[in-house]
Amino acid sequence: MEIIEGAGVWTPLAAGAANDWVEHLRVPDLSVGTYCIPAGGRDDQSPHTEDEIYVVTAGRAKIVTLDGAAEVGPGSVIFVPAGEEHRFDEVTEDLALLVVFGPAYGSRAPLATGK
């Protein structure tokens, strides 16, 4: 067992940073981290090669995919399959996300699109 301190907690960003990703745990089959985007910030992530789950722990935004968009806030749980384009938009309150990747983030070969 391991208690993961600070996972999903909003952390002020370093000066000049657009957003922040911190990995808290990594084992071969999954990784857990926190992704923070400040209010008014821009999410410029590319599709990932792993499935992921986001749990919104603080803030409000809209998640946008090619299939549509949805408002999210504290308690929202979002599943994004590997390879699906997605981003958080219209971040109206500092957004903190607990992120779980399966398998561990970056452990699969790059997508055919090069992203």
From TrEMBL:
InterPro entries: Cupin_2 (IPR013096), RmlC-like_jellyroll (IPR014710), RmlC_Cupin_sf (IPR011051). Residues 35-101 form the Cupin type-2 domain. This is Cupin domain. It comes from Nonomuraea polychroma.
